[in-house]
Specification:
The structure is a single chain. The protein is mainly α. The chain folds into two domains: about 160 residues, Ribonuclease III domain (Ribonuclease iii, N-terminal Endonuclease Domain, Chain A, Orthogonal Bundle), CATH 1.10.1520.10; about 80 residues, Double Stranded RNA Binding Domain (2-Layer Sandwich). It has twelve helices and three strands; from the N terminus they run αααααααααααβββα. α4 crosses α5. It is globular.
């Protein structure tokens, strides 16, 4: 018989899925700052990685189905707008993930439960856990519900961040997709340059950036690559 604490049971209701393995959901809510302090592990980072990929696939398919007349470039820009940090943090708040997050002492002191970067990562990790436990079907239903209005909106101009812009350039000019790899991680919470990330096309490094989060460092690396290429961000 399943034994799920009431707060997690409420989250399961919001997700529309009862977990066969509730430990997956608990792991998704465990921020690296908490895990590092308790057992030296990396917390929900692996689930975040998986959830990021699953979210990209699901949003891409839903946009493809909703807008048969849109070009590849417009679909790419729309996907970028839907899955940026602020948008994901908003959905995390709708699900009530902040109060459920297991955070380390430093993040608790600095209000980590309401930081967009942490909430966005939690959302992706929860999607990763949902996918592992139930497959793609519950992920599609959740994303379709949470992003319903944004998915069906008209082809109004959407803001393109540096990663989206670089992705468009790479697909148009090289028929490839940029890859991001972490060169170093100081492991220090609050370090403005904790992560150093390179962006590559094939084996060639096009830019390097640093940031407090991996997401921020990836954006900085993409901006550096665009500057090298002489490409505007707009």
């Amino acid at each position: 018989m399943r034994s799920v604490p009431p707060p997690l049971a409420k989250l399961e209701q919001a997700l529309g899925h009862g977990f066969a393995a509730p430990a997956l959901l608990e792991a998704a809510l465990t921020h690296p700052s908490f895990a590092y302090e308790s057992d030296g592990s990396r917390g929900n980072e692996r689930l975040e990685f998986l959830g990021d990929a699953v979210l990209g696939l699901v949003v891409a398919q839903l946009l493809y189905e909703a807008h048969p007349g849109w070009s590849e470039g417009l679909l790419t820009r729309a996907r970028g707008a839907l899955v940026n940090e602020r948008a994901l943090a908003e959905r995390a708040r709708l699900l009530g993930l902040g109060p459920l997050a297991r955070l380390g002492r430093s993040e608790l002191r600095t209000g980590g439960a309401d930081k967009d970067s942490i909430l966005a990562d939690l959302f992706e990790a929860v999607l990763g856990a949902l996918y592992l436990d139930g497959g793609l079907a519950p992920v599609f239903e959740l994303v379709r519900g949470l992003f319903a209005e944004a998915l069906v909106q008209g082809a109004a101009p959407v803001q393109r961040d540096a990663k989206t812009r670089l992705n468009e350039w790479a697909q148009a000019q090289r028929r490839s997709t940029p890859g991001y790899r972490v060169r170093s991680d100081s492991g220090l919470d609050g370090d403005a340059a904790r992560f150093v990330v390179e962006v590559c096309l094939g084996e060639e490094v096009f830019g390097e950036g640093s940031g407090r989060t991996k997401r921020g460092a990836e954006q900085a690396a993409a901006e550096a690559a665009l500057a090298r290429l002489g490409e505007p961000l707009g």
